[in-house]
Write a structure and sequence with these properties.
About 25% of the residues lie in helices and about 30% in strands. It is an alpha+beta fold. A five-stranded antiparallel β-sheet has the order 1-2-3-4-5, with helices on both faces. The protein has a three-stranded antiparallel β-sheet with strand order 6-8-7, covered by helices on one side.
Length: about 180
């Protein structure tokens, strides 16, 4: 899962997310929830159990993720996945065996291919796990939906103003998912 991804903004190095990245994952969770405008503070996210569970006790067994660093070594984005139980589901929950992904990119690095590189690396890691799929929730108006659709995610449900999307890895043609 390591390597260099060349983006228009320069080389971005990807590496596996570790327990030491927990604080940065929290920052990226905040970026993901505040994708269009400031709606939450870090304290509000961490004080809301059904949001905080995306990062609480990172990394527990079954968790996997990837972090992007710029050429100077600054952290610029992350994508990670974890499985939630039916009695404590995430926003994009589809079932107990399907990890839900979260993806966040530092605002100054959006539109430079960092999110695409992170998603592709996370899908590759999911295939290697292996897991049967990846799910997510995306709000109406979030331009990231185009990225997810180009990678094969399909809307499988709707909650309020958000779609639940699923990438079926169990039936994806070899080499298609995440490319």
């Amino acid at each position: 899962m390591t390597g260099t991804t060349n983006t228009p903004g320069g080389g971005t190095r990807l590496r596996p997310a570790t327990a030491q990245d927990a604080d940065f994952l929290t920052e990226m969770l905040l970026a993901a929830f505040n994708w269009d405008r400031p709606r939450f503070t870090r304290d509000e996210l961490l004080g809301t159990p059904h949001i905080a569970h995306y990062v609480t006790d990172w990394s527990r067994p079954g968790d996997f993720g990837v972090v992007a660093e710029d050429a100077a070594g600054s952290l610029v984005g992350a994508a990670w996945a974890r499985v939630f139980p039916a009695d404590d589901p995430g926003y994009g929950y589809v079932g107990p065996g399907v990890p839900e992904l979260t993806l966040g990119v530092v605002p100054a690095y959006r539109g430079r291919g960092v999110g695409s590189a992170l998603l592709d690396a996370l899908v590759k890691a999911a295939i290697e796990q292996p897991v049967e799929g990846l799910s997510l929730s995306v709000e109406d108006g979030n331009a990231a939906v185009r990225l997810y659709m180009t990678r094969g995610f399909l809307a499988v449900g709707r909650e309020g103003s958000s779609d639940t999307m699923l990438l079926d890895l169990a039936h994806a043609p070899a080499g298609r998912a995440g490319t």
